[in-house]
Amino acid sequence: MLINSCFGVNVISGGDPLEIYTEKDGEVIFKKYSPMGEMSAFAEQICESMHKTAEYPAAVCDRDSVIAAAGAGRKDLLDRHISPDLEQIMEGRRAYKAEPGGRRVAVTDGESSPAAAVAVPILSEGDVLGCVVFMERADGVKAGDTELKLATTVSGFLGKQMET
């Protein structure tokens, strides 16, 4: 089964977990279930801590969209669909760190999307659940190994939280 929303954002494929709702008029609504979505308030606090510690805008994404963010552009990121490049990073199950002169990885769809400085997939029991991201800073300072280690630590912590 493959269901596209009228906006082309949420794609439901065979094997995807679903939430099913019914309206009073009998309409049935299928919504893709996101285990990370249940942690959005917690993820918001983690993003705030990451942002204050590293001084980079930070975000936590599920497999489809940004569920929490802190720093510059926070409101423009929340609930936006992630970019195909970020999806590939998650599917590859490897951490990404932007290199000078390397390709730009947009965090969300759209031309005005910030670029990822660091992106680390969130894994739980072998499944990809989302991604922890530091965005590039406006002043051009590049992320280093410290930001990569912090994002990796947060990603591992969130993955463990999903196992319990």
Overall pLDDT score: 84
Cα-to-Cα separation, first versus last residue: 30 Å
Which geometry do the CA atoms define? Answer: globular
CATH class of the largest domain: Alpha Beta
Helix content: 25-40%
Rg, Å, rounded: 16 Å
Strands, total number: 9
Describe what this molecule looks like in 3D.
There is one protein chain. Helices cover 29% and strands 27% of the residues. It has 4 helices and 9 strands, in the order ββββαββααβββα. A 5-stranded antiparallel beta sheet has the order 6-5-9-8-7, sandwiched between helices. Strands 1-2 form a two-stranded antiparallel sheet. α1 runs antiparallel to α4 (145-163).
Layout of helices and strands:
Elements (H helix, E strand, L loop, with lengths): L2 E2 L6 E2 L5 E5 L5 E5 L7 H15 L3 E5 L3 E5 L3 H4 L6 H9 L3 E2 L18 E9 L2 E9 L9 H19 L1
Antiparallel strand pairs: 1-2, 3-4, 5-6, 5-9, 7-8, 8-9
Sum this structure up briefly:
The chain is of the alpha+beta class and 164 residues long. The protein is 29% helix and 27% strand.
Key features?
164 residues; alpha+beta; Beta-Lactamase; 2 domains; 5-stranded antiparallel sheet; two-stranded antiparallel sheet; 4 helices; disordered N terminus
